[in-house]
Amino acid sequence: MRFYARDWLVQWHPRGRAPLSEIVKINRYPRLALILLALALAGQLEAQIDLPAPDVPVPESEDEEQTETAAPPPETPVQIRPDEGSPVAGTGIAAPEFDSGRHFQFSGSLNGGYDDNVNLTPTGSPSWYVNPTVSVGYRFGSARLAMDLLTGGGINYYVDHPGGRYYDPIIYLQFSLAYKATPRLTLNFSTSSAYESQPEYGTQFSTNRRLGDYFRSQNQLSAHYSLSHRLSSVTGYSLNALEYASTAGSVHDRLENAFSEQLRYLWLPTTTATGEYRFGINDFQNTGQESTTHSLIGGLEQSFSPNFKASLHSGIQFRSGSRGGQISPYVETSLEYEPGSQGTAASRQLGARTYIIWTNRYSIEESDVGTGRETFRTNLKLNYAITARLSANLALIYSHGDNGTGNQGSRSFGGSRTQNIFDITPSVRYAISRRCSVNVGYRYTQVDQGSRATTLELLQAINSYTRNRYFAGITISY
After folding, report:
1. From CA 119, how far away is CA 117, in angstroms rounded?
2. pTM of the entire structure?
3. Are the CB atoms for 368 and 397 separated by under 8 Å?
């Protein structure tokens, strides 16, 4: 991938600001994967040196109340799909932990089963499939530098693919880095990138249909600065990208730049109040469509205990684009419960844990035809340790989007007034030993586009489908 700017400063046309597509251009996304991998390896080499803690003393507080600290993403387990061994997109990346030492992990999995709709068509396209995958994880944490790397890959091989495409590639990289530049300033970087073929229902950076191989990348850079023992600021920038290898999917190629500024105030020892402004620029690379979104958001983050946390953020969004403007409320909630000390020593050694992670959001998302779609999205991850060796898992993704009035032209080119996605995966895991486990499960997916009340929406039926996937597998970790 190559990003380049036409000029170092933003150019202006006589009629206003130049389109973003003239300032930033995407040519080849596979190059980005190489760049991100190089950054990960560079961070790995730097991590071999334990940096000493800074000598600068931390300013003393006027009282003994708790000090406002950085606000990393929730420290949640990486959500891996048990049917194909790839991370679920849109669930965020856990912040790396300081003073955690070095940890290296290697795992290999072999899954297989029956998929009754591998092409994701209304009529169905069944085939048996086999899914071998491998992954490598590395964690490091010292007093000032921390990093977390997870990378892997594999294939979905179809025994009798109706369309003649017998395998789908899976390559992914999850990486996060945190650096304490000073006692007051902490820098954070994270990336979630993948090259795959199956749609990702947990994020807007993917269509809900099979359009060939594609590359997606979601990257975040932020600086957290403590203004006082109660007040801090978080300045952030994110770059998200999507590119398809096929001509049919190229109309969905996207680039999103977003800037944010957040103020955090420690209201109570367990309660933090936040106020945030966000500005985003969305650019469909091959259609000329572009939009901007302004968001004003306030929120509360509550820690009921070290293992039970919740948050509520709400505000308003203003979107403008070539197809009109929109105003929409913004609401986001999260709930995390993970009792770290639950269970016996044997259950903790075998990895059996009970936890729940539930996020909800109502906001404007970019549809696949360059219009704004008011969308409600929920993601639930539940794991229950039945015994030291046996655990039950439930992964649920649901979204409902509405383009509002829209225009008939956009809907005739693949857009739809409404879109509903339901994806649920119950599974059971049994640990044979500390290094070997087996799993069995079922995954059901339903995608429904359009109310089918008009002739145009009847055409949307070609994008509506259901899928049933039955699977079982074995995983060996070191």
Report:
1. 6
2. 0.78
3. no
